[in-house]
User: Fold these one by one.
Assistant:
Number 1:
Amino acid sequence: MGQRTGGKAARLAAAVDLGGSKILSVVADGHGKIVSRDLRATPADKSPQAVIRAVTGSLRAAIAGAGERASRITSIGLGAPGISNPETGVVFTSPNLPQWKEVPLRDIVAREMGMPVWLINDANAAALGELYFGAARGTRNFIYVTISTGIGGGIVTGGRLYTGTSGVAGEVGHMTIADDGPECTCGNRGCWEQMASGTALAREARKRISEGADTAIVEIARGDATRVTAETVSQAFDRGDALAGELVGRTSYYLGVGFANLINIFNPELIVIGGGLANMGDKLLAPAYREAGRRAFKEAFRAVRFARAQLEADSGALGAAVWALRNAG
Amino acid sequence: MGQRTGGKAARLAAAVDLGGSKILSVVADGHGKIVSRDLRATPADKSPQAVIRAVTGSLRAAIAGAGERASRITSIGLGAPGISNPETGVVFTSPNLPQWKEVPLRDIVAREMGMPVWLINDANAAALGELYFGAARGTRNFIYVTISTGIGGGIVTGGRLYTGTSGVAGEVGHMTIADDGPECTCGNRGCWEQMASGTALAREARKRISEGADTAIVEIARGDATRVTAETVSQAFDRGDALAGELVGRTSYYLGVGFANLINIFNPELIVIGGGLANMGDKLLAPAYREAGRRAFKEAFRAVRFARAQLEADSGALGAAVWALRNAG
């Protein structure tokens, strides 16, 4: 990584993982040791200005929490959702922050905080976190996939994060796997995340319920369709509900289709799975791995391992910290 | 590239592009200058042994053609179709050479020729050829896509060919874009090459004709369904045939779906298009680029350029020569 990490003088970074619902800030060193942290809600329905105030407020709280070690903080890493360019520091659009359009987030935060700031996509940050401190340590070619309300990705080739020509590479959730599938928030159709995310799972459940399906999901959601989430489907699955079984199976199937694509394209040694929906565990993931094995080239499938993310809630913030420490040189 | 290229003493490589129908051997230097060449038919319906004899025969003819410069040949590059591992030198399977199963091609040719041999997938070789001497010179992140009977690919990230963990990366033709689409020779379903290759185009034409479609394709194929190829559809298109227009449009559409996936995943600066079907030119490709533009992230689509392959027939052999010269160190 190039930065000094030895002894008391080791440099620290402050880093934020800005999500659609939560803001996590940490102060961390180059070994992934977290010195202090701050967690608060994202005012996602408010203006970008309000969200940025919450980000800088959270950063200041984490820095204050570092006490006298705050003097060793030399840079800030900023993990943000959506499509952003790490070179220009601009967040173009963000599905989870619908009011955001071409926000020069890096420069605003840098001015507010009086420190160099390095912007990185949230899934790329999580991939870096897992590469340096988590499930992907020591690998050269791996893909990080986060499965939650959407599907995000981070690509590591030759031991380095691959960010593409204008910094927006890795949007594996927006590869089409069903060309005539549902329209996606990104404007494309049949994107992986439209077929296999938590949002897709809940959407299909609501659709089937509106068609009159007899299922425990209704009872768990207390008869209120708007309460049907991936979590209610998961609970119904655990009660042996037939529809939930079918819907989870459908999600596994589509996850497997996308995994097979990544395996045929990248021939990675490892796919690391993070995100809320992945917490369903084997009931969702084991059939997905089997579907991938049926579809991918044998020679490529033989070479790949699947692993759950290890840092989960901290991977984005720790990855953003690494990004800042490494770029600050 | 590392090899010495100055003056008369510059090293040369012999290189083969082994295809399903043709074998092209060249002797070339590190600047892409071809000293001699040999072209012959591939006895694809014969045993692997017979094909390998044709390969070594072609190599010997090209080397003989180099005259006294043959003494400067230090290594052999071998571009082969199908799934192969450059590290072990084994060709696992090859759709265009159906009798091939785990053939240790590299070691057999090395023993026959008494020279170090470097194996590389044919599409990867073509990507390297375009990177060093063709349409992709000077780029860092580009994808080579060959559209012919199948769809092959080569991925260049950070200015280097990306071959993955066991050497089989880049199989972009086998990413599923229609999860319930036709079964592919690879065992997967709805692969890009099942939807958008020349084979797919001819298959759809034959299907529509068998259903009784009124089209000039029948006349061009002299009433013989087995004569219907992508080429006959293209000729019918040029006569203004409605079905041909529809079928070419369908192929463009699916090409666009796949291009959008590559753009969202790789955010490349360039996509280079080679292969026989691409010779249809703008009538096929311009609508495909537009479909990709409708589907891909704007920020990624803005960054990409499409270009036709420049070396075409020679790209695989020249890329294999580069592969040998570079690996021979």
Note: The first strand of chain A starts at residue 12 and ends at 18.
Number 2:
Amino acid sequence: MTDFAIDPQLAQDTTLVGDLPLSRVLLMNDSRFPWLILVPRRAGLVELIDLDEAGYGTLMAEVRAAAAALRDLLAPHKLNVAALGNAVRQLHVHVIARSRDDAAWPRPVWGAGTGTPYDEAVRAAFVADLRRALPRIADG
Amino acid sequence: MTDFAIDPQLAQDTTLVGDLPLSRVLLMNDSRFPWLILVPRRAGLVELIDLDEAGYGTLMAEVRAAAAALRDLLAPHKLNVAALGNAVRQLHVHVIARSRDDAAWPRPVWGAGTGTPYDEAVRAAFVADLRRALPRIADG
């Protein structure tokens, strides 16, 4: 068994928010959508059902916490939660705050044109807000 | 509080598989993708985090069972699991078996052209297989 490492594509597309007990929490570098990605820090996972029952329960609780953080910070019109993995096979869960004014609404965000990078200060402030809103987060 | 009823659009697009303890399990009428939809039978839910913690845990266990059923029956290249709700706001979770040969791969299935209805006998056989593969299912 190899050590855990974030998939290179995910690493390139995101900024670290921090670690929950099981998951590394990443923020997509796309200011059009407030978009978290949770990656369980175990090597070799592809499907949600590759996790044992306890791990699955922990991940789902962390997804719930991430969704609650986005709701508390942004009061979005809708949350989107998804584990797809068609492009990047490493198990990861998207938690996205959607607005009726966003660049893809009402379509899903995947494949919706090119991302818009965050202004650095805006991103740093958002990451700080997310860290405060996420219980039990620590430096990754 | 009104009684629970399946959203009319969801009802129109699907066939009943049966009821798990919390969720009604539906099969999308689109033979291009083996595609289950789980709808918790509680009125007024929109977001996953609208469920209390126990209900959320039950729904996630049922999503796990549905994913395992599709994997056991079809050995798909990838499973896609998602709660979006941009079009139909009633809380529902998609559990979809993806193949590298399917009509949308590697893109998500939503918005991928027009559905292809099942042959009636094929659908009945698939529903019977799903009912056998899903523990604790009952007639809805």
Note: The beta strands of chain B are 14-19, 23-28, 35-40, 78-83, 93-98.
Number 3:
Amino acid sequence: MTAAPADARTAGATAPIPVLAVVGVGLIGGSFAAALRRAGHVGRVLGVGRSGPSLERAREIGLIDEAVGAAEAAARADLIMLASPVGTFGAILADMRGALKPGAIVTDAGSTKAEVAQAARAALADRVACFVPGHPIAGAEKIGPDAADPDLYTGRNVVLTPLPENAAADVARVRAAWEACGARVLEMDTVEHDKVLASVSHMPHFLAAVYVAQVARSADSQQRLAIAGTGFRDFTRIAAGSAEMWRDIFLSNRAAMQAELTEVRAVLDEAERALDAGDGAALQSLLEQAALFRRDWKAGH
Amino acid sequence: MTAAPADARTAGATAPIPVLAVVGVGLIGGSFAAALRRAGHVGRVLGVGRSGPSLERAREIGLIDEAVGAAEAAARADLIMLASPVGTFGAILADMRGALKPGAIVTDAGSTKAEVAQAARAALADRVACFVPGHPIAGAEKIGPDAADPDLYTGRNVVLTPLPENAAADVARVRAAWEACGARVLEMDTVEHDKVLASVSHMPHFLAAVYVAQVARSADSQQRLAIAGTGFRDFTRIAAGSAEMWRDIFLSNRAAMQAELTEVRAVLDEAERALDAGDGAALQSLLEQAALFRRDWKAGH
């Protein structure tokens, strides 16, 4: 392996992360690389991916220095970021396991964490301690290397859900990388993460998609759209996201979604009963609870 | 009645609407007056309202020239805009009926139209032909005279739902006033209006409020809010609106809301069944339908 000397020759060899590898060089992975590079936090950046044109484009615009395979990335990188779809993590980690450089840390940007932790355990087995699960909470409507933006994570929340096996120093290194991107880092239990994310991220998408599908199927859908205003626009914005990505998120976080849906349906039943009964007081009380809660959140932001 | 000469002395006596009266001088009514005044479309502006301080503030900042009672507004105005809550229209129109100046037109800005038409018929009886129902589709999160903005209606849709009794010339005058505000004017059947609005305006608010109330009631609601991102922000923005106003809208448009809710629930059932069964293909198909429909709408905007 002659890679280490080549990496050491680069100007960034003294950066906190001499060699970064990013698997999936789109919005999430590309922005991570761009933000770390701008902060002087990385030396060399390796890109791994299934799409030749995406990797080539990422190299052209300077997101990565070179494209390599998963095993080579494992052998050369100090930090590996998995930013490909969650369903690909198991195979990638299995490819990397035997090649991982001593001291290397692997982290990820997957939207659900229980399933990711399970896949990492299965693929890495006795080396799972090197895997520090994470989740940057940042928009993902745009895709591809050209969408990468060094400011994507500025002021955003990143949740780390450390495994019991993780060394505190490794968690701290992942935290420091995200902080160098301008993000606010929180630590959370895996199950609590998935529950909270089901509620504030996955459920809005699920409901927005259900609602938009219902409008789309109506006989007068075009007339509806012709007079839809800003309320419709904002309420449905997330429904335009990638169907594949959200399908995977919902299935990956199914148990937490089912639990939340049960609770959402209970409140929907209550609101509909008040409407059916013409019970203005009950309706207003529910609307007021929502309005006050939402205004408080806005005020805190 | 010495009012007519006084109004005729004002500089705007040759404007298309020599005297405008606005009932409710908040965001909706105040913005209408401000836009028409800027366009040179009105001469004198009279304000009618239940709140002394709001009327005084509206006069101070030049939205209205003077505050008068409902009967005096009826006697002096060429166009009367009802921009108070829908539930107040019946009493106001009954107060105005005996005093209405010959040729005066009354219009409104209520969010539902079947109930408004019914209230107008009951209050105005054989004079109902002067009432041209309308609905500007513009945001209403801010309230009060200070929220009034001459640009509020620029590029927005205004739906008129003329009564069979309306003279075409009267409908044309209301249309011209909205066009002078920069709005795009559509005409629609009353029932179709209420159905379409239930779908693209009232339902998003209903669902957003139900969802936010469910989050608010959760034991870990503060932790949820701490990591809520831009998807949550946009999806729930409308839930911060006035509980009273939305209660009245839902009750006023109850039948159309119930019909839409039945359809939304059917799609929710379908999505939940796909989730329960782990049926990725069904889930993706539904998400794709929503995403394509939403992207098409955005592209058309």
Note: Residues 190-217 of chain B form the longest helix (28 residues).
Number 4:
Amino acid sequence: MNIALAQLNYHIGNFEVNKKKIIQAINHAKDLKADIIVFAEMAICGYPPRDFLEFDDFIEQSNAALQNIAKECDNIAAIIGAPRFNYERKGKKLFNSAFFIADKKIHNIIDKTLLPTYDIFDEYRYFEPNNKFKIIEYQKQKIAITICEDLWNINDDGIYQINPMEALFSMQPDIIINIAASPFSYSQEEERKKILISNVKKYHIPLIYVNHIGAQTEMLFDGGSMAIDLNGLIVEELAYFKEDLQICSLEKLIYSPKEIKIANNKPDKIKKIHDALVMGIKNYFEKQGFQKAILGLSGGIDSAVVLALAVEALGNKNVLAVMLPSQYSSSHSITDAKQLVETLNVKYEIINIQPVVDGFLNTLSPIFKDLPSDVTEENLQARTRGVILMALSNKYGSILLNTSNKSEIAVGYGTLYGDMCGGISVIGDIYKTEVYQLAQYINKDEEIIPQNIILKPPSAELKPNQKDTDTLPDYDILDKILYKYIELRQGPNELIKAGFDKTLVHKILKMVNTNEYKRYQTPPILRVSPKAFGMGRRLPIVAKYLS
Amino acid sequence: MNIALAQLNYHIGNFEVNKKKIIQAINHAKDLKADIIVFAEMAICGYPPRDFLEFDDFIEQSNAALQNIAKECDNIAAIIGAPRFNYERKGKKLFNSAFFIADKKIHNIIDKTLLPTYDIFDEYRYFEPNNKFKIIEYQKQKIAITICEDLWNINDDGIYQINPMEALFSMQPDIIINIAASPFSYSQEEERKKILISNVKKYHIPLIYVNHIGAQTEMLFDGGSMAIDLNGLIVEELAYFKEDLQICSLEKLIYSPKEIKIANNKPDKIKKIHDALVMGIKNYFEKQGFQKAILGLSGGIDSAVVLALAVEALGNKNVLAVMLPSQYSSSHSITDAKQLVETLNVKYEIINIQPVVDGFLNTLSPIFKDLPSDVTEENLQARTRGVILMALSNKYGSILLNTSNKSEIAVGYGTLYGDMCGGISVIGDIYKTEVYQLAQYINKDEEIIPQNIILKPPSAELKPNQKDTDTLPDYDILDKILYKYIELRQGPNELIKAGFDKTLVHKILKMVNTNEYKRYQTPPILRVSPKAFGMGRRLPIVAKYLS
């Protein structure tokens, strides 16, 4: 039995485009003599559709596309994910389902049992969990169809009461097929392989896994669909960050030669982040129907890295870099930025913001009178830049890329409506120390980002001789505390026990918590870590905990 | 048996303040000879704590506060809500629990069974549902303790598989006590009374209901705690939008005189919205530690209504109104605005934005050259206003109130980083047609908002002779379509079937969907409807459905 793994980039709610892609893949698989083709979870509508699921019309459109797709399935079976109405029993209105199609008909439906409702996931918001298990028989093979999370309670020690594979295993399947919508984070590939191989080894059944690729706003899908043989060896591994379709025979998964090794070694975290961000930018523009990007280039490392990524994603012709010096900008800021745009062969503009900043100060002087300068005047500069960048973005129909990093977003070291503007935040899930690693990665073959940008001490350049360290601790200490607080959810006592200075811990945690109001208005942030700001981290603005 | 209903305004994560309030209420109830005092769901930590629940430290602090509170419970029992660790069984890490305290000890714990995970609620994200039922015996009375949603599957026809009251009823309780965190919407009071009275009538058991009051950022709690007698009559109804503590005897609930009528008639929707918004503003400032507000006063109805509400919430001395005319501002805009600030006795500034706008245009002219004027120049004006308002807010340590209404937020008729700036959106959940009703309500006793502001056609005044209706249909048609799409989740076919013009329906739905990117960066919006923009409505930015 030949199984095709179809790893595609879907567009949420774009039923026409998704249907066309799916039918093309079916025809391609027929040409390759596949007996079955497997698509991802929620392939027909794209993932995550979120509250579109509350519209009956949306489900009906998905159903209609499914019927059209079924008609193409002659001489091939298909397994494909889509939402469906719950007509069977009490509970939520929908199931998250896998449809088994053969002879142009839907022969069977499997519903998802384990519904992730943590981090970015909200599946219990929409779906009723399955509680009845069955095996699909096709061409004398017994197939255990599972949907993503259904395989993740392997050790039966997690947040779920049951492990669906236990029930399915008792029915003696010949193969496990898992259709997934498993978003990228830099640790996800390793984690995913560990879980899938554990399932294979525990049940001694080969496994086919099909994931999405592509970006859905902030959520990135890396693909990495795979086939794992009886012995737990990955015998087929599809591309990362690219559409792919491969055929694998069930026989190969049962009698595979022992010498095949696991395809990948431990994946390179920074390379993966890099590839994910490039895809994230590219897909955001493509799916929103935009070609051109604009960004403010300060001469610092953050905007330099974002520019390099944008050029890779969109092409140098489609990116406009804007330098916006003020009276506090150092001369090297412009020369470093110029060197970068010349290396990347990107169009640029230099716009002196001082006249407008002075205009604001003049306008405000009858009110401010002799009040001393403070953060107001710093923010004014950042906001003047924001207005100019947004004006260029409006006039040219381009999207402004936000260049804030995760460290500064965490502690609120940025100006709302100033440098926090943008349609999408490219490196908002990358700590400052990781931004440097990303710069080194970008420079691995040649010096794209000038060494001077990498070496100089970070500064917002909003007042004379300003340095980030005037306000913040060194980034390697800051980032360690932030990582433990944000990613690991460690509280102050654990942090202090780990050896961090008590005063510093309380200062940083307070900064993180009291700046929730700024993050509420941040652009969507491309998610590359297991805990990014955005939908995956939900905190009240008004609160007193640790602040 | 005398039962005290303690309806308090908690501050999320502020364990010291919450504990103090709770202990004060316990002492007050002791003075009133109460046998039991009942607090709301999650009273100790405040609701909703969201992802703070993922921090062990947060739960430990809550536990510590609970232990301190228990020590005060001599000669009185207490029922109080708090999260607790799930040590008992597999599943999520926490339970959402009601603690029964007597003789200074925790005697019993009841966990919540039905965990709302729709609209603004995310309870299944954190909590394992209860599946074992028990009755608490105290002073020979059998008490069925339920937590909020536990009573809401009364007809057993909803999104849940079970109805906890069925199990509890079989144990023959004498009284039902429901501790709740039931957020306000303009239809919630009616809905809540209907559900609670249905429970009483179905089981023929009296009921005590204790809710929160106060605002938690966008989420508003109206209170309205109550005691319902055997016959389904509300014999005690606590204040709305105010802290309150009342005593009710169980005897009264069993032998109440028949002539008591349900306290309220159908509540006045606009009055409720008004009171909710005033509380929302007031609490946002108090809990964030701010006194002073600022807002841009355009001469239009939206900012006029927000100003009137802000003055009521914060006092006229604490609000600064700023008029920001440009070359396109009509003369009546300033005169109308002046009349309003004089009536309200509010300090104001008039700042002509034209010099700064011209400064931006000069700065941009070498780049824009002869490109025709478009939305860019309109946005420039709105953003110049935004920068000036934020500068004043920074300099004076005040919070900028956002004045966008729900109709314009829905269709994207506003400028990101311009008129969409602000710390909190006051009327972002009020359709334009409701803004007029709110203005009439504010004017019910005397003319606060000048008639001219109410009567003139809405205009953004960003280009000559602009009217909202140049771009949008009449608001009474627009708002009807928006309500059906947003609140009722009706799709295009249902809308067209209801008689709306097909082209118009598609145009409006497309505007709503393609402007999700703007709403992502909107300030938090005080929630008064059953479906507000924000956490309760989660939609992808990149999507093609109906756009």
Note: Residues 228 and 234 of chain A are 4 Å apart (CA to CA).
